[in-house]
Design a protein that fits this description.
Elements (H helix, E strand, L loop, with lengths): L2 H20 L18 H10 L3 H7 L2 E3 L14 H21 L2 H4 L2 E6 L2 E7 H26 L18
Parallel strand pairs: 1-2
Antiparallel strand pairs: 2-3
Helix pairs in contact: 1-4, 1-6, 2-4, 2-6, 3-4, 3-6
Length: 167
């Protein structure tokens, strides 16, 4: 089995739970954060919506420079529907890049840069798993905590939640 086929199955599974979580973000709480050091709910949701699109950048390029001015800034999204639309667009682009990648591509190096300085470099397969997939899952879990703290029902992801007893 080609590597991308195994990763596509995982991607598709994780996207379902991530979208369910994003569908529940309360628009009237976009400026809410559980702590002064925490991201605001709207910013966190937008970040989660952007992560699947990173697959395209990491599989079709050899590096990404995150220094200000090196790439266009995303406009601030103001509604749940805008966040879901961004997420859906990034899912399509990310999935297409993953589906198109061959086994050889996964073992090429990729680097995250800041103004030309390497922050980290690893094979693209590790980037897909850690920098994209695990990153999305981590922030989705944070959103789950934000939902709980705002009395919004938390969706079931890997099994029943306290709010949903079924998958």
């Amino acid at each position: 089995m080609p590597i991308n086929q195994g990763l596509l199955a995982e991607f598709d599974h994780e996207i379902v739970g991530t979208r369910k979580t994003l569908e529940r973000i309360p628009e009237n709480k976009f400026d809410w954060a559980p702590h002064t050091k925490s991201m605001k709910l709207g910013n966190l949701a937008q970040h989660v919506a952007n992560v699947p699109g990173w697959l395209k950048e990491s599989l079709t390029q050899d590096s990404l420079d995150i220094a200000p001015g090196k790439r266009p800034e995303d406009p601030q999204l103001k509604t749940r529907q805008e966040i879901l639309a961004r997420f859906d667009k990034n899912v399509v682009a990310g999935r297409a890049a993953l589906a198109a990648a061959n086994d050889e591509e996964f073992f090429k190096p990729w680097a995250l840069l800041n103004n030309g300085q390497t922050i980290f470099s690893m094979p693209k397969i590790a980037v897909v798993r850690s920098f994209v997939m695990n990153h999305m899952i981590h922030h989705r879990a944070q959103l789950g905590v934000y939902l709980r703290l705002n009395d919004v029902p938390v969706p079931s992801i890997y099994g029943p939640s306290a709010d949903e007893q079924t998958f």
